[in-house]
Design a protein that fits this description.
Blueprint: H1 2-49
Length: 50
């Protein structure tokens, strides 16, 4: 029985870890999207001026 308890605890840990990873990555994605938008704007400006 103690095996089952340990297993369920580790599953919960893994779930929590996955949630944290996803949250971190989504945060990073947001930053990347901001950077991408910035670079696209920069490119548009350069294309206009050339």
């Amino acid at each position: 029985d103690s095996d089952n308890i340990n297993r369920s605890v580790s599953v919960k840990d893994n779930e929590k870890e996955l949630h944290n990873k996803i949250a971190d990555l989504e945060e990073e994605r947001g930053e990347h999207l901001d950077k991408i938008d910035e670079l696209k704007e920069e490119l548009k400006a350069k294309e206009k001026s050339s």
